[in-house]
Write a structure and sequence with these properties.
Layout: E1 3-9, H1 18-22, E2 24-31, E3 34-35, E4 39-41, E5 46-48, E6 51-54, H2 55-64, H3 66-71, H4 83-87, E7 101-106, E8 109-114, E9 124-126, E10 130-135, H5 136-156, H6 162-172, H7 176-187, H8 197-208, H9 215-220, H10 228-242, H11 250-256, H12 265-280, E11 300-302, E12 310-314, E13 321-323, H13 328-344, E14 351-354, H14 359-372, H15 375-382, E15 386-387, H16 389-399, H17 403-412, E16 417-418
Parallel strand pairs: 11-13, 15-16
Antiparallel strand pairs: 1-2, 2-3, 2-6, 4-5, 4-9, 7-8, 8-10, 12-13, 12-14
Helix pairs in contact: 2-5, 2-6, 12-14, 13-14, 16-17
Length: 421
């Protein structure tokens, strides 16, 4: 899906803020055919597809948050401090009104979410809402064009632009090692151009001593930069636990599975789980058995992690995993996620299970839900389009999963309506 930031310079009344005055523009943002800047002007009861704002503030926000916009991933639980300020365009206006457009990175793409927004003390209301994914390179090109246009505009009016020009030059002048460090700092929610020396050294040490396949997820799942040494120690101990990994018959299952055709991570996870059930003949057998005898037994170890975002580590060559302590239902769900990640893995190396809102983690969560509580199996057991919470609880006990997993399966697959929840 395409994304476009279109703008036309407009003449503004004289103002002491010359930077804002000379970069005033009519800005329209479109994602596919959706006009993100479509607004209702309540004072005139009219509609328009743009807002009039000084683009210098947008450019400063983009440059100041550059590395976060392209590398700091979202968490399904508590976010890094200031996450919304770094990712929501509404915070770029410096007093001027912009849409509530949140931009978060995923591999190869950027997820965009926009919502209805009625800014306080403003006469306009943003009326659109939705979400989409766009190519990272396309969005970056739009940002670069806007920043370059603002700088050119300021130069043309002979206005001071030392800070913005210097910061933009710094973003573009980094060598490969500096870019790698900037990405690592952004994953922690830290400004890569404002890192104390001791913390910078800790980030470099962690990066250099951590398996490449898990470095990004490990950093993003570290709740605080201060606990990087603890996370590194946990990983070392977890790898020792996984050294006992035996050969697994799941490798044969993986080779027998057809490649999932779905693109969306949750659909891919669902499809993979259904393929596993077909291969094993377990689609309607109720509670999935991880302790089955023989080569398909799935072993796991428990080890508390220093960050609540870290939920497990999966071996490189088997679905054996180390998981954080859980009750039976929680442990089964993490084991299922580990299995799903192993079966769908294309690259080498171990993998971290976490609460991050990345495509990989979403895919493993969808796989686990469909493996443990297959939608079609639930449909046959429901017997009605209206379901009471008590029946949801009973199904959770039957399938050995949290009640929330059953509820989400019912809702996500349109199986029924849970009443009185």
């Amino acid at each position: 899906m395409s994304v476009r930031f279109r703008f036309d310079w407009v003449d503004a009344p004289p103002s002491p803020d010359r930077l804002s005055c000379h970069t005033m523009a009519a800005l329209s943002i479109e994602v596919g055919s959706a006009p993100i800047t479509f607004v209702l002007d309540r004072s005139s009861r009219s509609w328009r597809d743009h807002v009039v704002v000084p683009l210098v503030h947008v450019a400063e926000w983009l440059v100041g948050n550059w590395w976060h916009l392209f590398h700091e991933v979202e968490n399904t639980g508590e976010q890094n401090p200031g996450f919304e300020c770094r990712h929501n365009l509404a915070f770029a206006g410096d007093g001027f009104v912009l849409p509530s457009l949140t931009m978060v990175p995923a591999p190869e793409r950027i997820r965009l979410r926009w919502r209805r927004h009625e800014p306080a003390h403003a006469r306009i209301e943003f009326v659109g809402e939705g979400e989409a994914s766009v190519e990272r390179e396309e969005l970056e090109a739009q940002f670069r064009d806007l920043v370059d246009a603002v700088l050119e505009r300021l130069r043309g009016h002979g206005l001071p632009l030392e800070t913005l020009d210097r910061e933009w030059a710094a973003v573009n002048a980094l060598d490969p090692d500096e870019r790698e460090f900037s990405r690592a700092a952004a994953l922690l929610g830290i400004d890569p151009f404002d890192v104390p020396d001791a913390l910078a050294a800790a980030i470099v040490t962690f990066w250099e001593h951590t398996e490449p396949s898990i470095r990004d997820d490990a950093l993003a799942a570290t709740a605080s930069a201060d606990c990087l040494p603890e996370v590194g120690h946990w990983l070392s101990q977890a790898f020792e636990d996984l050294e006992e990994t035996a050969s697994s018959g799941w490798a044969d299952v993986r080779r027998a599975l057809p490649p999932p055709s779905a693109v969306e991570p949750w659909r891919r996870g669902y499809a993979l789980a259904r393929s596993v059930h077909r291969e094993l003949g377990t689609g309607d057998s109720g509670r999935f058995d991880f302790a089955r005898n023989g080569s398909l037994a799935l072993r796991s170890h428990e080890r508390p992690a220093p960050s609540t975002r870290i939920q497990g580590l999966v071996a490189a060559d088997a679905p054996t995993c180390v998981v954080t302590p859980r009750g039976e239902s929680g442990r089964r769900f993490l084991q299922a996620r580990a299995l799903g990640d192993y079966l769908d893995r294309s690259g080498p190396g171990p993998v971290i299970l976490s609460s991050l809102a990345t495509d990989r983690q979403a895919r493993s969560r969808a796989f686990a839900a469909e493996l443990l509580a297959p939608a079609e199996s639930l449909r046959r057991r429901l017997g009605s389009t209206l379901v009471e919470p008590e029946q949801v609880d009973e199904l959770g006990h039957e399938y050995g999963v949290f009640t929330e997993v059953i509820r989400r399966q019912i809702e996500n697959h349109g199986l029924a309506t849970v009443v009185g929840w």
